[in-house]
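Subject: Sanity check before I submit

Could someone independently write out the structure tokens for this chain? I want to compare against mine line by line before I put it in a report. The sequence has 448 residues.
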Amino acid sequence: MDCTKIWAELQDAIKTAVEAEVSYTVHIKPAKAVSFEDSVFTIAVPSSINRNMIEFRFKNKIESILEAYTGQKISLHIILEDEIGQFMGNNEESDETDNSESLHTHKRELSINEKYTFENFVIGSSNEYAASAAISTSENPGRIYNPLFLYGNSGLGKTHLMCAIGNKIKKEHPDYKVVYITTENFTTEFVECIKNYKMDEFRKKYRTADVLLVDDVQFLQNRDGFQEEFFHTFNDLHSMNKQIVLTSDRMPQELVKVEERLITRFSQGLTFDITVPDYDTRLAILRKKAELNNYRVGDDILQYIADRIKSNVRELEGALLKVISIGQLSHKEIDIDLTKFAIDSILPKDGIVKITPDKIMDKVSTFYNVTKEEIMGKSKVNSLVVPRQVAMYLCSKLTDMNAGMIGKTFSKDRTTVLHSVEKIERYLTSDKTMKTNIDYIIKDLQSL
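---
Independent answer below. Compare away.
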């Protein structure tokens, strides 16, 4: 597919999804489509502020729109315009390598984000044990905490710690083969290798790693023998004392789609959760972010943001970026009034974030690995019917909407909504897995 054509055709949908016209005009409209390969859609933007704002506030929405258009799971990759030459050069080099070498140098192999280090990770009461374990793991790979399993809600720093481990090991042991992959990419590559009869190359790539970093294992799918393959890869590496680090949005015992033998393996090392940062940690994170990016922001501004934004690190950094962006665009000094204006556009004045149907669909679609558009659609396949019914049930329990209002939101009639709610209620009395799933989604929503 022509990435430029796709990007042009989706601008109206993206503009509507972003809602704030100034955000679209300043941060998204200047973006250029660069490439669309292996389910990765790459765009280039003029500045780091554009990139950061899209990354923190709009990436999920844009990915959903791309997924609805292409019919496949998409990862949005954002680079700066002055990086286009290097990016395209790397792709060309990878293409040539693919023709002659194995999957060890496959062009879709993800690289560790070099910006994620222990030096710029802020340690507080919410993550101190996880951070301590990560540092120890990087100093003694494969010897003490193996596997290391880090879990917690989105945006709390799991990927940062995982990449910090990889970056430190690469620095201290340059001869080590350190492989970082998301579960989604791992699964996609596995399926492609099955189809193309390249499983020997797949196994060579992963089973010869000295350090394997796997992000978001909650998305492990039990299809086409993938969990069987993952199990043997895990066992081979573990038996040779090769370091394995895993992240998830929930603890191993709550991975209801994962085989019991894998859950047992995940739990046999060290498991740590990362929770929502307290005020002091949030303030320290903002100070570190301002220092790293040379933002000239008064401490009273940072204190105000830390007091208002309490959900996660990603939202915290996104709020700071919004304050900086508004100051730069309006050519005004960043004072407390400007900061209040920026933050109030994100949060209601009482500081309470209400659970809305849109937020419910965001969480449900992420949990079930489907798109919001699929939930809102008419397909009656079970993989979509259940998430749709769960979303309707949560709207009935967590909002003040009646069945008619919920029906309008989902383009269904009132009877369908009532039937869906009753069906989920019956599931909850007899299906332990369903209860675990819904309890997790509610917990995630309440942490916003």
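---
OP: Matches mine. For the report I'm noting this point. Residues 94-109 have pLDDT under 50 and may be disordered.
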